[in-house]
Design a protein that fits this description.
The protein has 203 residues and is α+β, with helices and mostly antiparallel strands. The protein has 8 helices and 7 strands. The strands form 2 sheets. Strands 1-2-5-4-3 form a 5-stranded mixed beta sheet. The protein is elongated and about 50 Å long. A hairpin with a 2-residue loop joins strand 6 and strand 7.
């Protein structure tokens, strides 16, 4: 396809989508974590061209921080630009199924649960993915998310992975920030327990 000057921007967008689709299809036979991470990076690149910054939250953020120890089955993004995200995902070959978008050829599912990050934007971490990158919710906020699920939903899995992440990153975690975000006395009790247990594990 040739571009004239009046359609140049539109042509560039189409070329980017075509290249992105090629990159996606190249992931078809890769391991699940690699497929998900690179899909997230491709989507992030396209969205940031629209001045929208997708942030990975939920299970994939745990999988990234745990160095592929945890396993999840979809990509959760928080972003402000749902309609543009919908257009780009459809252009990439994703199909809307309920609240999710699913790509039948590469077997990756995407969900956008919110347009606002339940955490500190200043703590969002950028993770390189080849020549691309992804943005991930801060480690303190994902640990707090798991801690709250452990306390309020009695989720043993969230307690296990929240504590694992706390133990892995305890020397880098901003504990003052975490304590300032605690919402109930039971959350403080749980965090104190994790802190004491982590100290014991490190000794």
């Amino acid at each position: 396809m040739k571009c004239n000057t009046t359609r140049k921007a539109g042509c560039l967008a189409l070329i980017n989508i075509d290249k992105a689709k090629e990159s996606l299809f190249a992931l078809k036979n890769k391991p699940k974590f690699e497929r998900m991470l690179h899909t997230a990076a491709i989507f992030t690149e396209l969205m940031e061209q629209q001045n929208i910054e997708p942030i990975i939250v939920g299970g994939l953020s745990v999988e990234i921080y745990s160095l592929n120890g945890y396993t999840t089955h979809d990509i959760d993004f928080v972003l402000d630009g749902y309609d543009k995200a919908n257009d780009i995902l459809h252009s990439l070959g994703f199909e809307k199924i309920g609240k999710d978008w699913f790509h039948p050829e590469i077997g990756v599912s995407v969900e956008i649960p919110d347009n606002y990050l339940a955490g500190d934007y200043g703590k969002v971490t950028t993770v390189p993915v080849g020549k691309r990158k992804v943005n991930v919710i801060g480690i303190e906020d994902i640990i707090l998310d798991r801690l709250r699920a452990a306390v309020h939903w009695k989720s043993a899995q969230d307690r296990e992975w929240g504590f694992r992440l706390f133990l892995m990153y305890m020397e880098d975690i901003d504990l003052d920030y975490m304590e300032s975000k605690l919402e109930t006395p039971t959350e403080k009790i749980e965090l104190d327990h994790w802190r004491n247990e982590a100290k014991y594990e490190k000794e």
